[in-house]
Specification:
The complex is a heterodimer of chains A (about 110) and B (about 110). By secondary structure, chain A is mainly beta. Chain A has no helices and eleven strands. Chain B contains no helices and eleven strands. In chain B, strands 2, 4, 5, 6, 9, 10 and 11 form a seven-stranded mixed β-sheet that branches. In chain B, strands 1-3-8-7 form a four-stranded antiparallel β-sheet, with no helix packed on it. The chains are: A mainly beta (about 110), B mainly beta (about 110). Chains A and B meet through β4, β5, β9 and β10 of A and β4, β5 and β10 of B.
């Protein structure tokens, strides 16, 4: 089952913050985050493995609460280059080797 | 340059005419996978392979075949394409276990079946 991402779309001004959530109905082993710009391939951002783990990538960070089967992506002080569609991919416990992606969150950053 | 190469980038075909989309990676990756991307549905996994001669179904395998005879290649075969297989297809590879290895995606193949 696909994880549920929210919101479906976000519109920001440069410098504003955003949070994208990814929620699964199944127990998770890991969560991946990718960004896809229009007409391009998805590009890897980060992987989270352990419960409560947080990671950062420039001004983009993420957390993973394995008890709640949820992950959140935090975009701080957004830049124009952050525009794109963000996908979470979940790897389920007992069903590793399969990465199931959410339907995506479209983020647009305006000057 | 480390990359995943898909061919062709664009393909228009007719219903029932067999086709193959090739995928090749030069990173010595163990894991390879095919996804299709449709508006509003995100990326859905078609097939994946953990290693040579090992393939397994993803979530939407119907109407597709794959093979993994060599580590670097993972072709996607549509024996009898139908219009509902019109989509954007991505091949991806990963060094090893997904929990610590990111997916590297090819540039995509846009397939139209009329």
């Amino acid at each position: 089952q696909q994880p549920v991402q929210s919101p479906q779309a976000v519109i920001l001004r440069e410098g504003e913050d955003a949070v994208i959530n990814c929620s699964s109905s199944k127990a998770l082993y890991s969560v991946h985050w990718y960004r896809q710009k229009h007409g391009e391939a998805p590009v890897f951002l980060m992987i989270l493995l352990k419960g409560g783990e947080q990671k950062g990538h420039d001004k983009i960070s993420a957390s993973f609460n394995e008890k709640k089967q949820q992950s959140s992506l935090y975009l701080t002080a957004s830049q124009l280059s952050y525009s794109g569609t963000y996908f979470c991919g979940t790897e389920g416990r007992g069903n590793t080797d399969k990465l199931i992606f959410g339907t995506g969150t479209r983020l647009q950053v305006f000057p | 340059e480390a990359q995943v190469t898909q061919n062709p980038r664009y393909l228009i075909t007719v219903t029932g005419k067999k086709l193959t989309v090739t995928c090749s990676q030069n990173m010595n990756h163990e894991y390879m996978s095919w996804y299709r991307q449709d508006p509003g549905l995100g990326l859905r996994q078609i097939y994946y392979s953990m290693n040579v001669e090992v393939t397994d179904k993803g979530d939407v395998p119907e109407g597709y075949k794959v093979s993994r005879k060599e580590k670097r290649n993972f072709p996607l075969i549509l024996e009898s394409p139908s219009p509902n297989q019109t989509s954007l297809y991505f091949c991806a590879s990963s060094f090893g276990q997904l929990y610590n290895s990111p997916l590297h995606f090819g540039n995509g193949t846009r397939l139209t079946v009329t």
